[in-house]
Specification:
The protein has about 270 residues and is an alpha/beta fold. It has one domain: Metallo-dependent phosphatases (Purple Acid Phosphatase, chain A, domain 2). The chain contains 10 helices and 11 strands. Strands 4-3-2-1-10-11 form a 6-stranded mixed sheet. It has a 5-stranded mixed sheet with strand order 5-6-7-9-8, with helices on one face. A hairpin with a 2-residue loop joins strand 10 and strand 11. Helix 4 runs parallel beside helix 5. The protein starts with a helix and ends with a strand. Bound molecules: manganese (II) ion (MN). Manganese (II) ion binds next to loops.
Length: about 270
């Protein structure tokens, strides 16, 4: 038996058993899924959306998958070297659990969570993308971004974004006591939430994303996935796939890529 195992030529072996090869290949490709989600705006562990988000992460345990977080998962995050905000300990523990199980995590920064810091990179082993990236997933070239930079004419916002993310500003923020910055952030987030509510109602993902996606398709991408708009929308066009992820406040939606095919699902 041992002789057989040592001398067996794997190529010939699988040529001899095409059905077994087919079964193994379809088993592995069918089970590997890539999940995309954004805009949970997590704040307090007792909030309904926070609990549901944790439940979703728990259901990914022990699944062969990778997870892409496309920004604004946290209502506010800036990374410190040695401490994290206590309200986020439950979700960070769950992310660590997934990381320890070998699940690949990727975080694209949003407008509420940025300068993710050492904890995300070193402890959670998470790949952090500051703006956007073209990722090769299941043979597709997928453009991922939070979506806050889609409006190229909004110069003020672009400048503001660059300002809060520049290394000097990040260094200065880290000099502020975390309790104080948490209080300031909650106040600022509350203000922006009030202003945003009216604007958001008028946002139409189709109008906003179609032009943006055609630019990305022209660059060679064949799928465009963003968050930020808080409305779920999925369209398959001749050039490729366009997905607006929705949110984890009202919709609890996420995109899945399996065998290069995308779907938008809810939890
Ligand atoms: Mn956002």
């Amino acid at each position: 038996m041992l002789d057989f195992l040592v001398n067996v030529n794997p190529v010939r072996f699988f040529q001899k058993f095409p059905l077994l090869t087919f079964a193994l290949r379809s088993f592995y490709s069918a089970t590997m899924k890539h999940y995309f989600l954004s805009d949970a705006h997590l704040l307090h562990p007792n909030d309904a959306n926070y609990r549901k988000f944790i439940e979703f992460l728990k259901h990914l345990e022990n699944k062969p998958c990778s997870v892409y977080f496309l920004g604004d998962i946290f209502h506010f995050w800036v990374g410190y070297r040695h401490c994290v905000f206590s309200a986020y300990v439950p979700v960070l523990q769950q992310l660590l659990q997934l990381h320890n199980q070998g699940i690949e995590l990727c975080f694209v920064e949003g407008n509420h969570d940025f300068n993710m810091g050492e904890y995300f990179r070193d402890v959670l082993g998470c790949r952090v993308i500051e703006k956007s990236a073209g990722l090769k997933i299941d043979g597709r070239k997928v453009f991922v971004a939070h979506g806050d930079l889609i409006d190229e004419k909004d110069r003020f916002y672009h400048r503001w974004r660059d300002f809060v993310r520049n290394p000097l500003c990040a260094w200065l923020m880290r000099r502020i006591h975390p309790d104080r910055i948490w209080r300031i952030a909650l106040w600022a987030a509350h203000q922006s939430r009030r202003r945003r509510k009216g604007r958001e109602a008028s946002w139409d993902p189709e109008t906003i994303l179609t032009r943006h996606a055609s630019l990305r398709f022209a660059e060679g991408h064949d799928a465009v996935i963003t968050g930020h708009i808080h409305k779920p929308w999925h369209k398959e066009t001749e050039q490729g796939t366009i997905i607006s992820l929705g949110d984890w406040i009202n919709h609890f939606t996420y995109a899945v890529c399996e065998d290069g095919n995308f779907s938008l699902e809810s939890f």
